[in-house]
């Protein structure tokens, strides 16, 4: 059973009692991420996440880790473009400790100057490692070229320069501005009592005050451009991006089915055509992202430089086919079933349940049940999919990012008659 409570200061608490497990996944979610940063702050959300693990006025960095590990628990955090979350998974009897550690980090981080300077080196190495992995970095390049100048278009990690420029005062100002009661959700799933979670949250986060001025972030505008990044690699790593739908746009459900048909797993068209039938790529697939301001549908892959043009042409061929030919009933039903199965499988993880509830409150202000999502997926028709495909998968709307040896990449794209 799911229960919600609004604390007096505006912090929201949502829990789900799952009696047949022995653990609890508990998270403090903040509705702020990379899109809330100014250009001089790029990466501050992620850097702050790191720093909250570096010690409070009651606990050292080692103390935070040791206290959780000593009771068999796990603690971690994550930052993306819209949220930052700090979470633990613990045996049910240690939930009070988990809440105390998480809220101590959020409310009373020391933000020590020496620790900050050391952590800068850690984050800079993370940025460099990410850049050295073209199969990962190409997705950031696609966002940069597709959403040029928009607050969603920069890397969550920031740049070496913006990280180096961060100070304790920068982080404290960001905390005061964004870690406010109306932006915080406490979410927990597992063998728990809702009243206990509320009492623990009230005793810690209930003391938090402050109010944020909501930022006005413009809608996403997709730029159909191409960006090539020169890197001495044996393979070429590419992403093709098309304008998708915002989080509250119900057409996202038809796009979800289109995503599965095109590149969602080993039975998808791209996997079968490009990898299994032709052996042109080891890794190829698709994905979609939805934010409040808009979204994107993307196809990604890695292939030999000499075959890049052929692979990208095959992707365009599949886009053309799904725009002009209804998805056969068997393939369509398989896509619906795969999505339904994935959603139901996720319910076996307390962490997934915890995250779904938190995002629901932050995005919609209410719980969007799994049943609602599944019903929306099952209500999509083949006609809906072909309509969405014709809106989204138009060649003149698509952007492209490629990482590889630029001269060779330009040559193979030109040979295939593709823009470079």
Structure description:
It is a single chain. By secondary structure, the protein is of the alpha+beta class. The protein has two domains: 2-207, Metalloenzyme, LuxS/M16 peptidase-like (Cytochrome Bc1 Complex, Chain A, domain 1, 2-Layer Sandwich); 226-415, Cytochrome Bc1 Complex, Chain A, domain 1 (2-Layer Sandwich), CATH 3.30.830.10. The protein has 16 helices and eleven strands. Strand 9 and strand 10 (294-304) form a beta hairpin. Helix 1 (44-51) crosses helix 7, helix 9 (252-263) crosses helix 15 and helix 11 crosses helix 15 (382-392). It is globular. The termini are far apart.
Key attributes of the depicted protein:
11 strands; Cytochrome Bc1 Complex, Chain A, domain 1; 16 helices; six-stranded mixed sheet; alpha+beta
Brief write-up:
The chain has two domains: 2-207, Cytochrome Bc1 Complex, Chain A, domain 1 (2-Layer Sandwich), CATH 3.30.830; 226-415, Metalloenzyme, LuxS/M16 peptidase-like (Cytochrome Bc1 Complex, Chain A, domain 1, 2-Layer Sandwich), CATH 3.30.830.10. Helices cover 46% and strands 20% of the residues.
Topology:
Elements: E1 2-6, E2 12-17, E3 23-30, H1 44-51, H2 61-69, E4 74-79, E5 84-91, H3 95-108, H4 113-131, H5 134-146, H6 160-165, H7 168-178, E6 184-190, H8 194-204, E7 226-230, E8 235-243, H9 252-263, H10 269-277, E9 281-291, E10 294-304, H11 308-324, H12 329-346, H13 350-364, H14 370-379, H15 382-392, E11 399-404, H16 406-415
Helix pairs in contact: 1-7, 3-8, 9-12, 9-15, 10-11, 11-15, 11-16, 12-14
């Amino acid at each position: 059973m799911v229960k919600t409570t609004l604390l007096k200061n505006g912090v929201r608490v949502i829990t789900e009692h799952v009696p047949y497990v022995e653990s609890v996944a508990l998270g403090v979610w903040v509705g702020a991420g990379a899109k809330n940063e100014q250009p001089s702050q790029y990466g501050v959300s992620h850097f702050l996440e790191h720093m909250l693990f570096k010690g409070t006025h009651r606990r050292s960095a080692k103390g935070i880790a040791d206290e959780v590990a000593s009771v068999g628990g796990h603690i971690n955090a994550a930052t993306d473009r819209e949220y930052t979350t700090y979470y633990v998974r613990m045996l049910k009897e240690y939930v009070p400790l988990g809440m105390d550690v998480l809220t101590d980090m959020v409310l009373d981080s020391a933000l020590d100057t020496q620790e900050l300077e050391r952590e800068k080196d850690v984050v800079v190495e993370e940025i460099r490692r990410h850049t050295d992995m073209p199969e990962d970095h190409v997705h950031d390049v696609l966002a940069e070229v597709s959403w040029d100048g928009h607050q969603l278009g920069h890397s969550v990690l920031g740049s070496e320069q913006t990280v180096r420029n961060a100070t304790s005062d920068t982080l404290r100002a960001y905390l005061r501005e964004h870690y406010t009661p109306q932006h915080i959700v406490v979410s927990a799933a597992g063998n728990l009592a809702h009243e206990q979670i509320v009492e623990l949250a009230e005793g810690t986060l209930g003391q938090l005050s402050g109010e944020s001025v909501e930022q006005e972030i413009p809608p996403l505008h997709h730029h159909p451009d191409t960006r090539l990044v020169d890197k001495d690699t044996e393979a070429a790593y590419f992403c093709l991006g098309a304008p998708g739908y915002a989080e509250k746009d119900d057409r996202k459900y038809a796009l979800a089915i289109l995503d599965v048909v095109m590149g969602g797993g080993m039975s998808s068209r791209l996997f079968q055509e490009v990898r299994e039938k032709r052996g042109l790529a080891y890794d190829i697939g698709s994905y979609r992202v939805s934010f409040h301001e808009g979204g994107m549908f993307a196809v990604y892959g890695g292939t030999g430089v000499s075959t890049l043009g052929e692979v990208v042409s095959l992707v365009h061929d599949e886009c053309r086919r799904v725009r002009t030919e209804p998805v056969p009933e068997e393939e369509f039903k398989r896509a619906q079933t795969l999505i339904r199965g994935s959603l139901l499988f996720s319910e076996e993880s307390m962490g997934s349940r915890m995250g779904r509830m938190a995002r629901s409150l932050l995005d919609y202000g209410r719980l969007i049940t799994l049943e609602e999502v599944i019903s929306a997926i099952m209500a999509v028709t083949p006609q809906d999919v072909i309509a969405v495909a014709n809106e989204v998968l138009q060649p003149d709307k698509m952007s492209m990012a490629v990482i590889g040896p630029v001269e060779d990449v330009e040559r193979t794209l030109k040979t295939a008659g593709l823009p470079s």
